[in-house]
Structures are given as C-alpha cells and as structure tokens.
Amino acid sequence: MRLSQRNQEKRLNLRDKHVKNEHLTASEKISEFLGVVRNLFRNPIYVGAIIGRIADVLAFKGFFVFIGKYLEIQFGVPQYKIQKYLAGAGVVGFAVGVMIGSICMKRFHLQGKPNRQLLKMFLCAV
C-alpha cells in the first residue's frame, strides 16, 4: 500500500543531511581535525577563556599545595596535624555543600536540565 503524497511529506526523515557520504583515510581525518583545532585556537574568546581557566586552576591547586607548608612554618604545627585538619575541613565542607544543595533542590523544586542557567548565574554570583 502506497502512502499518499501528503503522508510522505509528513514522514520523519531520520537521515542527517549534513553527514558527508565520503570515506576518508586516517591522514585526511587527522588533517581535517587539525584544521578544526587551528580554527578553534584562532578564536580570541575561546583562547581567553582557556587562559583564564588555567590561571584559576593553578591558583586553586597552588593554594592547596602550599597551605600546609604555610601553616607549618607560620604556626609551628606538625605536618601530620595540618593534613588531618585540612582533610577534616574538606570532608565537612563537601558534606555541607551536598546537604545545602539537596535542600535547595528539594525546597525550590529544581531539576538539573531546566534550571541549568539559573545554577550558572548563581555560581557566577558566588
């Protein structure tokens, strides 16, 4: 039984029209990938965001690497006690963050995908 012209127009086309039907060799795929990466690194907004993120990570990691040594020198506390205190503070901070986050999600009826933008704005404000 043939479908009418109208039903054929309504049918969902599951083929992606943007996919090329060419079979590329490995070297062609690599050169295409390198071209895309080159274009990406020419985007000044992307490069600035990456540099900012790298500086943020380095500052954050540097703080945690050197805070123990600083406390040891500044206050004369043994290294094993400092590590115990820092670990306890990290675990407690993580637990409090999870609890506050779950309470906010439950109380304000938030879900992950629909409220992603709201979460991003809140994190930027903090």
TrEMBL record:
- InterPro entries found in the cross-reference section: MFS_trans_sf, OATP
Q: Among its keywords, does the record have Transmembrane? A: yes
Q: What's in the keyword line of the UniProt record? A: Disulfide bond, Membrane, Transmembrane, Transmembrane helix
UniProt GO cellular component terms: basolateral plasma membrane
Set out the biological process GO terms recorded for this chain's protein: sodium-independent organic anion transport
Which domain of life does the protein's organism represent? Answer: Eukaryota
Per the UniProt record, which residue ranges are transmembrane? 45-65, 85-105
Recorded GO molecular functions are: sodium-independent organic anion transmembrane transporter activity
Q: What is this protein called?
A: Uncharacterized protein
Organism of derivation: Oesophagostomum dentatum (Nodular worm)
